[in-house]
C-alpha cells in the first residue's frame, strides 16, 4: 500500500502515465465485472484469454484520444471524462445485469420504461457492498488530492507519439477481433448473443455493434408505413391453404408440447448404422413414432434456415415468418418487433400458458428478449437447472436427459392447457463432447471425419431422452391431453462433410452432387396426436415455415387471420413449393433448384438444357418462392405487424419476467385454488418429479456397449 502511494504519483507525473493509469484501473474494474458480476460463460483458456485482453484496445483508443490535446487542463479533463464515461457504461451494465442477466442495448436505452425498470427505483436494491470495489480509485484519488500529491504534466504529448498510440490500439483491436473470430467464426455476421459479443470484444465494442444494428433496423422500420401491409395481406389471402376437414380441430384445447430435435436430419429416421457387421438402430423411439397411426409424419419436410440456424427454425415454427437473409432475426429484431407468435395467439384464443425449457444461457440467440415479444410466460433456461459441470454438459448447455428431468418441477406447475417447448442441445456439433460416462456405448461410425463418426451416438442419446420424456407424459396422463410436435431444426452434417457421409447412406463420395446435398436438408417433422388412429406418413413437400398454420388448423384455429406466410401441410390446397432462404433455391416434388443447378427431384437427374415449357414452369416456381420470401421480409424488416389490426390485442412484453418463475407459477396455483388446472394440482398436490426416469445407455444396453435389440449377424454376408 505504501509502495502504491509512492508509485502512483510518480507514474501519473507524465501525461502518458496518466493515460495508462486510467487504462489499468478501467481494465481491472472490467475484469472484476466480468468475473464477479457478469456470467460470460467462458470455457477454456483461450476464451478467458480473449476476455482478459478485450477491455484494453478500445479503452486505450478512447482515453488515448486525449493525448492529442495541448492544453493541460483540457487534456486532464478530457482523459478523465472519457474514463468516467467508460466506467459509467461498465457500472450501469453491472447493475442492469443483476436484474436482466443481459447487457444494456440501444433499444433498452430508448425504451425508457424498461430502463427505469432496471435502473430506476429498483436500482438501489441492486447495489451490493462489494460494489465499493468499483469506487476504490475515487477514494485513492481524493486521498492523493488532499495530500496534494497530484501533479500535472504541462508538456503536450508528442503528436507523432499520440498517433502511434492510436495506431497501436487499433492494431490491438484487430488482433482481438481476429482471435475472437477464430474462437467463433462469423461472430459479427451472425451475432449469436450479447454475451458472445461482450466476452469477445468488450462492452464499448458491444455498444458500437449494437448501435450499428439498431440503426440499420431503424432505417428499414421508419421507412415502412401501414400502406406496405396491403400487398402483404393480398399475398397471404391468395396463398392461404384452407384446412383439411378430416383434421381441422382434432387437437382442439389440448396442451401443445414442442420438442426441438437439435441438428437431427431425416436420413437418421429408420437408419441403421453398421459397425463390425452389426446393425445399430440410431433412433428406435423416434422411428416408432414415425410409423405410428397416432402420428402425422412427414417424409419431405425441409429445414429452411440460414445463418440464424436454431433461431431461424424457432422464428419459423413460432411465427410462420422466415429468418433474415443475413444474420439472425431473433438477434436483430426479435426483442423489438411487434410479433404475433404462437404463445400469444394461443393465450388469447385458448387461454394457454406458455414456457420454454432450454439448458443453455438465456441470452443465446437473444431468446430472453425475443420470447417476451412472442408472449412466452416463462423461460426456464440454464439458471433454473442443475449446475453445469464437465460431466453433465458441453459448450451448448446441459445434457438433454438432465434438462428434461429438471424441467418437470416447473412443467407440473403450469396451468393447462399449456404450450411448452423443449429445446434439446446434446446432438449439436461437434458431436464428440456431450456424452461421457454411462452414456457412452453407442458405436461410432468409421469415416475419416470425427464429426460424422460421433453424430449417431448423440442422435441416439437424443432419441432415448425423448423416449424418457414420453414415458413420463404417459405415466402422468399428460400424454392423452396433449399434442406433441417434434421437429429437427437444421442439418447436423454440413454439405462440405457430406461426401464423407455418402458411403454410410449407400451413396458414392465420388459422384456426390448438390442434388444430394439438397435432399439431405430434410428434417423430421412429426405431430403426435394420442388417440388419433388415422395418422400416417405424408409425402407432401413442405418446411418449417408451414408448421404453425398446420398446428393452428389442428387446434381449430383458422390461420388466415394472421400474417403468416406458410401453408397447412395437411391442406389439399398446399402448393408444395419449399423456398430456401438463399434466393433461387427451392424444392418441389418435380424440380429441385440448389446451388445454382436444376434437377428433377424424383430422379436427381440434372437439367442442363431445359426446354421452353420447363423453363416457364421453373420460372413460375422461382417467382412463387421469391414472393413468399419477399412478403416475409417486408413484414420482418418493416415491422409491419405493428400496423395490423386483426383483433388480436397487442402484447405488453414488459409484463414478462423470467426471474423467479417457479414462485410466479406457485402464486397462480395458490390463487386459483381448486380451480387450478396444473398437473400438480390435479395430482392431489403431489409432485410428479419422481415419475421421470431416464436410464443411461449402459443401463439400457448393458455395459458391453453392444446393441441387443436389432443386431444382425454378419455371418451371412
Ligand atoms: C444453443 C442452441 C444452438 O442454445 O440452441 O443453436 P445453433 O448453434 O444450433 O444455432
Ligand atoms: Mn440448432
From TrEMBL:
Taxonomy, superkingdom: Bacteria
InterPro entries cross-referenced by the UniProt entry: Alkaline_phosphatase_core_sf (IPR017850), LtaS-like (IPR012160), OpgB/LTA_synthase_biosynth (IPR050448), Sulfatase_N (IPR000917)
Gene3D superfamilies to which the protein is assigned, alphabetical: 3.30.1120.170, Alkaline Phosphatase, subunit A
Sulfatase N-terminal domain ranges (all copies): 254-557
Subcellular location: Cell membrane
Keyword field: Cell membrane, Membrane, Transmembrane, Transmembrane helix
Transmembrane segments: 49-68, 75-97, 129-146, 161-180
Keyword Cytoplasm included in the entry's annotation: no
Low complexity composition bias: residue spans: 702-717
Main location: membrane
Membrane topology: Multi-pass membrane protein
UniProt pathway: Cell wall biogenesis; lipoteichoic acid biosynthesis
Coiled coil start-end: none
Pfam families named in the record: Sulfatase
Region feature Disordered, mapped onto this chain: 691-717
PANTHER family per the UniProt record, alphabetical: LIPOTEICHOIC ACID SYNTHASE, PHOSPHOGLYCEROL TRANSFERASE I
UniProt record similarity statement: Belongs to the LTA synthase family.
Protein's name in the database: LTA synthase family protein
Annotated source species: Streptococcus oriscaviae
Amino acid at each position: 500500500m505504501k509502495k502504491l502511494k509512492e508509485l502512483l504519483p510518480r507514474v501519473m507525473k507524465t501525461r502518458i502515465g496518466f493515460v495508462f493509469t486510467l487504462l489499468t484501473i478501467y481494465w481491472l474494474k472490467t475484469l472484476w465485472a466480468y468475473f464477479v458480476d457478469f456470467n460470460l460463460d467462458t470455457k477454456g483458456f483461450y476464451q478467458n484469454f480473449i476476455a482478459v485482453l478485450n477491455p484494453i484496445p478500445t479503452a486505450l483508443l478512447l482515453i488515448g484520444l486525449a493525448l492529442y490535446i495541448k492544453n493541460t487542463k483540457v487534456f486532464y479533463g478530457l482523459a478523465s471524462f472519457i474514463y468516467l464515461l467508460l466506467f459509467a457504461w461498465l457500472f450501469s451494465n453491472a447493475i442492469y445485469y443483476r436484474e436482466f442477466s443481459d447487457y444494456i442495448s440501444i433499444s433498452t436505452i430508448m425504451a425508457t420504461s424498461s430502463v427505469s425498470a432496471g435502473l430506476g427505483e429498483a436500482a438501489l436494491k441492486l447495489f451490493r457492498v462489494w460494489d465499493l470495489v468499483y469506487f476504490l480509485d475515487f477514494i485513492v484519488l481524493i486521498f492523493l488530492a488532499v495530500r496534494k500529491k497530484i501533479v500535472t504534466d504541462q508538456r503536450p504529448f508528442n503528436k507523432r507519439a499520440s498517433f502511434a498510440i492510436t495506431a497501436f490500439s487499433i492494431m490491438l483491436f484487430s488482433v482481438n477481433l481476429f482471435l475472437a473470430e477464430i474462437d467463433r467464426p462469423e461472430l459479427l455476421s451472425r451475432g449469436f448473443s450479447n454475451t458472445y459479443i461482450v466476452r469477445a470484444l468488450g462492452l464499448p465494442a458491444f455498444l458500437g455493434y449494437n448501435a450499428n444494428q439498431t440503426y440499420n433496423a431503424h432505417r428499414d422500420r421508419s421507412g415502412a408505413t401501414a400502406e406496405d401491409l396491403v400487398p402483404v395481406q393480398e399475398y397471404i389471402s391468395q396463398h392461404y391453404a384452407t384446412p383439411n376437414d378430416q383434421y381441422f380441430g382434432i387437437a382442439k384445447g389440448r396442451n401443445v408440447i414442442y420438442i426441438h430435435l437439435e441438428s437431427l436430419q431425416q436420413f437418421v429416421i429408420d437408419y441403421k448404422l453398421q459397425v463390425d457387421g452389426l446393425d445399430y438402430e440410431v433412433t428406435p423411439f423416434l422411428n416408432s413414432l414415425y410409423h405410428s397411426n397416432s402420428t402425422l409424419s412427414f417424409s419431405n419436410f425441409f429445414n429452411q434456415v440460414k445463418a440464424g440456424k436454431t433461431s431461424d427454425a424457432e422464428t419459423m415454427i413460432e411465427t410462420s415468418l422466415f429468418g433474415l437473409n443475413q444474420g439472425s432475426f431473433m438477434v436483430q429484431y426479435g426483442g423489438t418487433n411487434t410479433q404475433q407468435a404462437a404463445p400469444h395467439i394461443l393465450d388469447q384464443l385458448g387461454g394457454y400458458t406458455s414456457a420454454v425449457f432450454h439448458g443453455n444461457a438465456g441470452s443465446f440467440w437473444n431468446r430472453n428478449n425475443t420470447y417476451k415479444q412472442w408472449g412466452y410466460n416463462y423461460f426456464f433456461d440454464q439458471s433454473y437447472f442443475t449446475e453445469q459441470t464437465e460431466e453433465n454438459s458441453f459448450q451448448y448447455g446441459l445434457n438433454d436427459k438432465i434438462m428434461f428431468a429438471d424441467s418437470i418441477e416447473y412443467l407440473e406447475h403450469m396451468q393447462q392447457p399449456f404450450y411448452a417447448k423443449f429445446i434439446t442441445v446434446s446432438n449439436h456439433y461437434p458431436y464428440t463432447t456431450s456424452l461421457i460416462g454411462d452414456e457412452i456405448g453407442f458405436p461410432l461410425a468409421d469415416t475419416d471425419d470425427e464429426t460424422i463418426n460421433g453424430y449417431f451416438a448423440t442422435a441416439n442419446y437424443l432419441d432415448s431422452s425423448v423416449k424418457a420424456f414420453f414415458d413420463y407424459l404417459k405415466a402422468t396422463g399428460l400424454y392423452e391431453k396433449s399434442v406433441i410436435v417434434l421437429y429437427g431444426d437444421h442439418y447436423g452434417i454440413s454439405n462440405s462433410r457430406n461426401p464423407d457421409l455418402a458411403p454410410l447412406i449407400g451413396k458414392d463420395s465420388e459422384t456426390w452432387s448438390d442434388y444430394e446435398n439438397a435432399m439431405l436438408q430434410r428434417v423430421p417433422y412429426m405431430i403426435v396426436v394420442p388417440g388419433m388412429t388415422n395418422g400416417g406418413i405424408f409425402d407432401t413437400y413442405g418446411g418449417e415455415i408451414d408448421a404453425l398454420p398446420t398446428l393452428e388448423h389442428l387446434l381449430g384455429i383458422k390461420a388466415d387471420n394472421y400474417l403468416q406466410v406458410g401453408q397447412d401441410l395437411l391442406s389439399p390446397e398446399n402448393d408444395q413449393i419449399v423456398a430456401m432462404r438463399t434466393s433461387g433455391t427451392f424444392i418441389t416434388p418435380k424440380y429441385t433448384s440448389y446451388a445454382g443447378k436444376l434437377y428433377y427431384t424424383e430422379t436427381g437427374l440434372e437439367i442442363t438444357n431445359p426446354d421452353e415449357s420447363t423453363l416457364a414452369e421453373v420460372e413460375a416456381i422461382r417467382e412463387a418462392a421469391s414472393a413468399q420470401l419477399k412478403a416475409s421480409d417486408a413484414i420482418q424488416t418493416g415491422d409491419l405487424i405493428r400496423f395490423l389490426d386483426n383483433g388480436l390485442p397487442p402484447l405488453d412484453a414488459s409484463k414478462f419476467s423470467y426471474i423467479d418463475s417457479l414462485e410466479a407459477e406457485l402464486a397462480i396455483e395458490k390463487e386459483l385454488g381448486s380451480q387450478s388446472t396444473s398437473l400438480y394440482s390435479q395430482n392431489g398436490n403431489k409432485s410428479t418429479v419422481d415419475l421421470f426416469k431416464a436410464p443411461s445407455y449402459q443401463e439400457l444396453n448393458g455395459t458391453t456397449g453392444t446393441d441387443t435389440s436389432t443386431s444382425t449377424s454378419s455371418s451371412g454376408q
